[in-house]
Design goal:
The protein is α+β, with helices and mostly antiparallel strands and 606 residues long. The chain has 28 helices and twelve strands.
Length: 606
């Protein structure tokens, strides 16, 4: 109530939105030495108390509205606890021991039960009087809970709500209410962790690859422990949280009697919980170097399976609107390829070669307008296998048809579940990628992924996954003709992008005010691959971002050969595989210049 009153007084009107700027100002007015993080930790603690009171209030009246079954239907679970209907009760009036508290939560999961109000109060009061001891029975029942088939996530949520999880894992108590700004998380870190466990637990009922994997896990408790500890060290060190989290997990598991082998598995998962997403979303999955590097970090198929489940759990709990079929497909592609490499004990080069260009007659089956010579010429025009690993035989036939037809530019649309896929075939030209991005921009189309394929004769086949900016779903087919016409005008030199961008500027200002509110830091990192220099750019998203960045990269004399565009809420992470004008990797001496130029370019639109 204090925070709400301050919001009203400070703004001079009724406003109940506690956004980032308001958090900073309220923290200042309340003299928080540690700023908004301290304020928000206290705020979430206060809302937790209100939530517990509300639950108690509702349960009290539930008894009046819905009378309990007769006592003759009681089911004794042990000397302390019994079940009546779907409610768990305690027979003792005394302070509960550590053993009894943890056992109560095990029974809660095992019986899919609710706590009686008296039992909830006893647990809270018992924690106020005594600390949780890690006795043999406590460790046994906590491990049994984590190994349970159902209700693990909801039970851990209840443990966290009543303070038991923080008592068992002190670092989790410090972790509670931890928030991050300038990134795409919409939950506090502790809530994100609990939701991640709930989400991965649900897949056991699906017929998906993830569902089948989850149901084959021998020790589910190891996966749940990895999720519990994957972010736990963020309040200590955000950058190194994966390393510190692994050490915290090590100490906890040692105390709970886990074997060294199990501890190492969980430590591996915590340390590498970002690896699979980083590889799938920011690297070329048809590059042998990418796949070989990813597989080198893994030891066994079990580690791959667990990492895949952990990655899904983590990403699906970031923000309900951000888990898309496209992200799922990228992760699944990486999983399938690396699983085959490990199972067959083959390198990525062999894997990709096996699925390389099909025989010409297979492509010709999809078109009556192309010959064997057309197909062979097309196949021979690529220097690597990535094109063949990305497109189907039918799509290749369509590409060859368009090239043979002599069209100066061809635009092919394909509707997917959440995205519109657009393939553009034309001759390479100066700053072409930037111009293509500009055409998408003036049509309010958001680019999520870009793959660039160039033939030896300078014909480019660029493929984009895009969505409508306003709806964040597929582009309306009614707009296809206008978009295609703009691409044709661009190729003919009739479309003056600079003028079109100026026309749209006032409209974009209104859109940006509505959709882009978060501020954040710009981060530019360089990584060398075998053939390319990779530039990773992390920044708050803005309209025109990709157009500006690709234009700047061209101005700097860099040629883009592959791009991954990842949108995460109001942030983006764009990755570009580039070479200099002489088709060589960028000299490290030039990194600072590129970084400064890109920073200046991005700051102009923030």
């Amino acid at each position: 109530m204090t925070v709400r009153n301050i919001l009203h007084l400070n703004s001079g009107r009724k406003t109940d939105r506690l956004d980032f700027e308001a958090q900073i100002e309220v923290a200042r007015l309340l003299n928080y030495e540690n700023g908004y993080k301290g304020l928000m930790k206290d705020y979430y603690n206060a809302t937790g108390i209100v939530n517990r009171f509300l639950k108690s209030f509702i349960k009290r009246y539930r008894k009046i509205l819905f009378p309990l079954p007769p006592s003759s239907l009681e089911i004794n679970l042990d000397n302390t606890f019994y079940l009546l209907g779907d409610v768990l009760y305690t027979r003792t009036e005394d302070v509960l021991t550590s053993d009894q508290i943890v056992k109560a939560f095990y029974f809660k999961a095992d019986q899919a039960a609710f706590f009686d109000e008296k039992l909830r109060s006893q647990i809270v009061n018992s924690l106020d009087k005594n600390e949780i001891e890690r006795t043999a029975e406590v460790t046994t029942y906590f491990k049994k809970l984590l190994q349970h088939k159902d209700n693990v996530g909801s039970t851990l949520a209840s443990m966290h709500e009543l303070g038991v999880l923080g008592a068992l894992i002190p670092e989790f108590e410090d972790f509670a209410g931890y928030i991050q700004h300038g990134v795409y998380h919409s939950y506090t870190a502790d809530e994100h962790t609990i939701i991640a466990i709930m989400n991965v637990e649900k897949v056991q009922n699906e017929k998906s690859v993830l569902g089948r994997l989850f149901n084959t896990i021998a020790k589910r408790d190891l996966l749940y422990l990895a999720i519990l500890f994957h972010d736990i060290a963020k309040p200590i060190d955000l950058e190194g949280h994966h390393i510190l989290g692994a050490e915290i997990a090590d100490s906890f598991m040692q105390d709970f009697g886990y074997t060294d082998k199990d501890i190492e598995k969980v430590k591996f998962l915590v340390k590498n919980h970002l690896l699979m997403a980083h590889t799938a979303f920011r690297r070329d999955l048809n590059s042998p170097e990418t796949l070989n590097h990813f597989v080198s970090a893994l030891g066994t198929l079990e580690e791959l399976d667990l990492l895949y489940l952990l990655t899904y759990a983590d990403l699906s709990a970031v923000n309900s609107a951000l888990w898309t079929s496209w992200k799922n497909e990228l992760l699944n592609e990486l999983y399938r390829k690396t699983r085959e490499m490990i199972s067959e004990e083959i390198p990525a080069e062999e894997l990709l070669y096996q699925s390389a260009f099909p025989l010409p007659h297979k492509i010709m089956e999809h078109s009556n307008n192309i010959s064997h010579e057309h197909v062979k010429s097309h196949i021979d025009s690529f220097e690597d296998l990535s094109y063949a690993n990305y497109f189907s035989e039918e799509e290749m036939a369509q590409h060859i048809e368009e090239i043979v037809s002599g069209s100066q530019i061809s635009v092919i649309f394909k509707q997917l579940e959440n995205f519109t896929n657009v393939t553009i075939i034309t001759f390479d030209a100066e700053s072409l990628l930037a111009k293509l991005c500009g055409v998408f921009l003036i049509n309010d189309v958001n680019i999520h992924d870009a793959k660039i394929f160039t033939r030896k004769d300078s014909i480019i086949i660029d493929n984009f996954n895009v969505s409508d900016f306003r709806t964040n779903s597929t582009v309306d087919e009614a707009k296809f003709d206008k978009i295609r016409a703009d691409f044709v005008s661009m190729e003919q030199g009739m479309l003056q992008l600079s003028n079109e961008l100026k026309k749209h500027k006032s409209k974009w200002w209104r859109l940006e005010t509505k959709f882009f509110k978060k501020q954040g830091k710009i981060s530019i990192k360089f990584e060398e691959s075998e053939k390319y220099t990779i530039i990773d750019i992390h920044s708050p998203d803005r309209l025109g971002f990709l157009y500006k960045v690709t234009t700047k990269l061209h101005d700097l004399g860099l040629v883009i050969y592959f791009a991954k565009i990842l949108t995460m809420g109001s942030d983006i992470v764009d990755s570009f595989y580039v070479l200099d004008a002489k088709k060589k990797k960028i000299s490290k001496n030039f990194y600072r210049v590129i970084s400064d130029e890109l920073n200046s370019c991005i700051e102009e639109i923030l």
